[in-house]
Amino acid sequence: MATYDVVPQAAKALAGKYGAEAVSSLEELFATTDAVVVAATNDQLVPLSLAAVRAGKHVVVEKPAAAAPPRSSRSRRRRPTRASS
């Protein structure tokens, strides 16, 4: 388990609270996890969620993905499809 925050001290505090590793970049976070919980300001929810999807991660968004349905639907359209087995 790992945490990332644009404020490194916040990532370290959260990591210490839950016994996780604090990482210094999204790339490092994506390299160390299978899933990502996006807990960010409204303007960052879609970009961060899409970055995680593009990195092949499972994504949980902690609040509505957008203030308006058109922006939220943009996120849903970019989900990768699973290959049939």
Helix coverage percent of residues?
Answer: 40-55%
Write the H/E string, N to C: EHEHEHEH
| CATH homology superfamily name | NAD(P)-binding Rossmann-like Domain
Tell me the β content.
5-15%
User: What strand line-up does the widest sheet have?
Assistant: 1-2
* Tally of contiguous helical segments: 4
What is the makeup of the main sheet? 2 strands, parallel
| Record field, number of beta strands | 4
> Which CATH class?
Alpha Beta
Structural class: alpha/beta
Describe the structure.
This protein has 85 residues and is of the alpha/beta class. The protein has one domain: Rossmann fold, CATH 3.40.50. Helix content is 47%, strand content 14%. A two-stranded parallel ribbon has the order 1-2. The longest helix is centred in the middle third of the chain and has 13 residues. The protein is globular and about 35 Å long.
Can you give me a brief rundown of this structure?
Helix content is 47%, strand content 14%.
Provide tags for this entry:
single chain; 85 residues; alpha/beta; Rossmann fold; two-stranded parallel ribbon; 4 strands; 47% helix; 14% strand; globular
Q: How are the SSEs ordered, and which strands pair?
A:
Layout (H helix, E strand, L loop, with lengths): L1 E2 L4 H11 L2 E2 L3 H7 L2 E4 L3 H13 L3 E4 L7 H9 L8
Parallel strand pairs: 1-2, 3-4
